Amino acid sequence: MQKASKIILGIDPGTLVMGYGIIAVTGNDMKLISMGVIKLNAKDDAYKRLEKIHQKVSDLISIHHPSDFAIEAPFFGKNVQSMLKLGRAQGVAIAAAMQYKIPITEYAPKKVKQSVTGNGNASKEQVFSMLKQLFKLKEIPTYLDASDALAVAVCHHFQNRTVLSTGATKSKDWKDFLTKNPERLKK
To answer: Which residues form the catalytic set?
Structure first.
C-alpha cells in the first residue's frame, strides 16, 4: 500500500461544539482517517473552553501528524459577540497548528460548500450527502459539525490537488473537476 502523501486536518470551529475531520490523501485518492467533535461545556468559563480547544486540537495533531491544517473562516453574522467568540475559538485552534509548524489555510463557508457539492449555498445535509458518497459513509454523525470539518479537509484537497495525468495543473472549478472525474457524478 502506498504511503499517504498528505494528511489533512479540517476544523469547523465552534465555541460549544468544534468539528474535526482527518483525511489521508494518496495521489488523488482520499481516505477518511477520523471525524468527530470536541464538545465543550457551556457552564465552563470561556477561557477554560479555549484552553480545551487548544489541548484537543494539539492532541489530534500529536496523534495523526497532519501535513496540512484547513479551517473554516467564521461567517459574518449580525451578532458581533458570537462572531468574536467564534473568532477566538478559531484562533486557538490555529495557534495549536502554528505550534507544530503546520501550514494553515482558511476557507470561507461558501467556498467549502461550493468545492464539495458544487453549490455555495448547500445545506449541511447536502454537504453530508456528498461526503457520504465520497467516503461511502454508513451513518449520519450526531453532530453535523463533524461532517462540516470533513468537508473543510476535502475542500483543501480539491483546492490543492494536482491532476497527475496532466502534470501540475490544478483543478480550476467544479465543472473542470467533473470533466476530469466523471466517476464522481451521481448516476
So the answer is: 12, 72, 145
